[in-house]
Target: L-rhamnose isomerase
Amino acid sequence: MSDRTENAKRVLAAQTIELPSWAFGNSGTRFKVFAQHGVPRDPFEKLADAAQVNQYTGAAGSVALHIPWDKVDDYEALAAHAADLGIRIGTINSNTFQDDDYMLGSVCHPDPAVRRKATAHLLECVDIMDATGSTDLKLWFADGTNYPGQDSIADRQDRLAEVLAEVYARLGDHQRLLLEYKLFEPSFYTMDVPDWGTAYAHCLKLGPKAQVVIDTGHHAPGTNIEFIVAMLLREGKLGGFDFNSRFYADDDLMVGSADPFQLFRIMHELALRGVVGPDSGIAYMLDQCHNIEPKIPGQIRSVMNVQEATAKALLVDTVALSAAQAAGDVLGANAVLMDAYNTDVRSLLAELRGEQGLDADPMAAYAASGYAEKIKADRQGGQAAGWGA
Ligand code: RM4
Ligand code: MN
Model:
């Protein structure tokens, strides 16, 4: 086995990808939420489903919560339940976009009372981090405007900065604030955090515990995301990823399904800098919805897609690449990259799984386990978790 393959296996064995609790509940588009049988009815059952993904991939040991969707009376009990299942609670995601009060925004709203309410929610999320042992607070704001003149662009930034500073001050030494940007939707004229530059500017002002999150679905079509990755890494401000894929807008499809080459290019930038592993300070997670496909295998497939892109990125012959780049060998450099991308890494990953005591084929192993049939039979009655609940 070549050194590169061996190194790839070592890095892949340690790689972890966080799962979003909301991927296990019912979801849909703004036209229709499709109910599936056997979906979790509470956060405890969401964790149980997430643990299945970890059981068959060995690479998904943590779950992100979304508050208030995952509100429980006893967060210590929820964290203990996760530990019993061999996983842990990861990022805490705030939600200031589903309350009537937030029609004109939350932390950027012109009314100080609404801003206060949103701030209180964010501070509550930090309390939940304390109770669950979570270290990352992920902030995504639906704030923005639909019409020119609707509100002051600059004043909204001041309001945002003020709230962020208050939340930042509440963080413990080991906790971080991860700020996520999104170009458009739900607002269409301006979003208050539309791009990485805005997120970066706020994080820079806040301090070292504030970092930027890249959601792969949150850019204009054609945006070179790997360039953003390289820039944020260079500035030490890349805090995490929300992986998914898109054809048109924020489609939240399975990562690597629409554009596996883009995912490879992103992983290449990360592999070059040696920041693929769990100690990198980069929170890698999925942020997807499975509207028409079964959810647990959808998550398993997504984890595998990230692993495949990572494996290919780790197989890039970086010595040959640097030599070709230094020599100005345009075609040679490109060929080195494409060689890695065109490598079939499925057998390497199957072999690795065997070494880890996992089934070589996680999709087949899950399908054969009977878990899907069991939850369909067991989860009768109660209210299925779903979009907006
Ligand atoms: C947003 C954003 C957030 C996610 C919500 C559900 O578009 O991507 O990260 O928490 O959706
Ligand atoms: Mn996201």
